[in-house]
């Protein structure tokens, strides 16, 4: 049984979606936030003291996107393809973590997450400007194929879509990127995504 430490209203959402997509049994060990986005109690199994963390038998992992790669590898194809497509999954997952997420967070904190009085409009604009450049790359890729890797949904789509879920749900202007918008609509309304979203959105 996978044990996902965290709550659905955190990056643990990503791992819950992955477990749902993989069809593997899992439990959520609830750990949420105290005021100021700090954890309500320490999480000793993660040396970074952050959520999520995963326990799978003797294996303990941190980093939500790495946890998702592990979950997908347990499920195998089609969620985690083999051969060169496995390398393409790694490429897109690293692109998500290194090229996309920081800009999503910069926009998100200053557009809808922080209390209104603490938001800085110029920070939201800078995050959006950087994110738009990445969305333009994605738009061109999705003009060539329906999903990031091959013709079907893989954990590469899950990992990128779960990072773009906040903007998608919270009014980010996706009009200049219609293929990205359609792909996100498809990914985020898959039955497994809807089950995970229900835990988060209520
Ligand atoms: N790169 C990490 C980021 C983890 C992270 O920042 N988690 C947040 C919640 S979504 C957290 O635990 N914040 C509490 C803190 O920083 O004290 C991952 O993707 O797992």
TrEMBL record:
Signal peptide: none annotated. Residues 82-202 form the GST C-terminal domain. CDD domains: GST_C_8, GST_N_GTT1_like. Residues 1-79 form the GST N-terminal domain. InterPro entries: Glutathione-S-Trfase_C-like, Glutathione-S-Trfase_C_sf, Glutathione_S-Trfase, Glutathione_S-Trfase_N, GST_C, Thioredoxin-like_sf. Pfam families: GST_C, GST_N. SUPFAM superfamilies: GST C-terminal domain-like, Thioredoxin-like. It comes from the Bacteria. Belongs to the GST superfamily. This is Glutathione S-transferase.
């Amino acid at each position: 049984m996978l044990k996902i430490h965290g709550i659905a209203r955190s990056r643990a959402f990503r791992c819950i979606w992955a477990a749902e997509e993989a069809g593997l049994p899992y439990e959520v060990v609830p750990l949420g936030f105290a005021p100021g986005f700090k954890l309500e109690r320490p999480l000793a199994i993660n040396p970074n003291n952050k959520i999520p963390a995963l326990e799978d038998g003797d294996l303990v992992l941190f980093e939500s996107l790495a946890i998702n790669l592990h979950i997908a590898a347990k499920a195998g194809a089609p969620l985690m393809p083999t051969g060169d497509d496995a390398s393409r999954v790694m490429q897109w997952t690293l692109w998500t973590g290194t090229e996309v997420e920081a800009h999503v967070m910069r926009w998100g904190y200053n557009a809808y997450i922080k209390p209104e009085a603490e938001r800085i409009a110029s920070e939201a604009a800078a995050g959006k400007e950087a994110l738009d450049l990445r969305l333009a790359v994605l738009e061109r890729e999705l003009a060539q194929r329906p999903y990031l890797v091959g013709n079907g949904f893989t954990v590469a789509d899950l990992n990128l879509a779960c990072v773009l879920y906040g903007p998608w749900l919270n009014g980010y202007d996706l009009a200049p990127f219609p293929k990205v918008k359609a792909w996100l609509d498809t990914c985020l309304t898959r039955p497994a995504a809807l089950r995970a979203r229900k835990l988060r959105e209520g």
